[in-house]
Amino acid sequence: MFEVRNLTAAYGQSEVLHGIDLSVGDGEIVALVGRNGMGKSTLMKSMIGVMPSRSGQIVVDGVDVTAMPSHRRVASGLAYVPQGRQIFGTMTVKENIETGRVVTGRSDIPNEIYDLFPILKDFERRRGGNLSGGQQQQLAIARALASEPKVLLLDEPTEGIQPSVIKDIARLLREIRDLRDLCIVVCEQLLSFVLDVADRILVMENGRIVHADTRQNVNEAAISRFLAV
After folding, report:
1. For 196, which of 15, 125, 170, 220 could close a Cys bridge (C-beta 3.0–4.6 Å)?
2. pLDDT higher than 90, residue 224
3. In whole angstroms, what is the distance from residue 141 CA to residue 145 CA?
4. What digits encode the pLDDT tens for the residues 125-137?
């Protein structure tokens, strides 16, 4: 469903992604882990088109989207939940979700969205900026799902969220995957969350994928060494 082939990206003359290869199947959740500055967010931005890649390919369901601007990648099936959520604070919950519907040509919000996030139904007239961090994260995910994606990209979804809510986010991602058969790619540093949600775990270091495990055969000690400061 989703492939990244030999992707490189650079800031000026400084290359920060060095030949990334990534393949994600239908209904699979893959986690990219690594310390700050290892290239995780750069990879996310390159995949969605916020940052141009220097070379390589990004393929969604057989369609090469590498040369497409971000909005066309979204229309082709990519959805992105950025680090820090970046919801529209002055807009209502309902209006935020409706912005995700633009690429579908429709404005109605599917009942499925509110079934997944009942708190957003209760607060649909509340301004996004008045929600808690966990509620804002749910809103950001709901907005992404409103575009009816095939691939969901999430950058640091546990950042700034209290521990009691992190388990709920993991449960929601598994529920979304099972409901829509999406493939999900999540960048994260919190290993407990990754072990709770991911089918495969890939470790990034210095712009490369240097280690890979399946959930069933995960070597927690090896991954923890890569995450240690």
Report:
1. 170
2. no
3. 6
4. 999 999 998 899 9
> Is this prediction's pTM over 0.85?
yes
What is the set of domains in the chain, with CATH numbers? 2-86+149-227 (3.40.50.300)
| CB-based contacts of 104, cutoff 8 Å, min separation 6 | 146, 147, 148
Q: What is the average pLDDT across 47-57?
A: 93
Cα–Cα distance, 51 to 45 (Å, whole number): 5
* Res. 229 pLDDT band, cuts 50 70 90: low
DSSP-assigned letter for residue 120: H
C-alpha to C-alpha distance for 11 and 218, rounded to whole angstroms: 33
Q: Is 36 exposed, middle or buried (0-12, 13-18, 19+ CB in 10 A)?
A: exposed
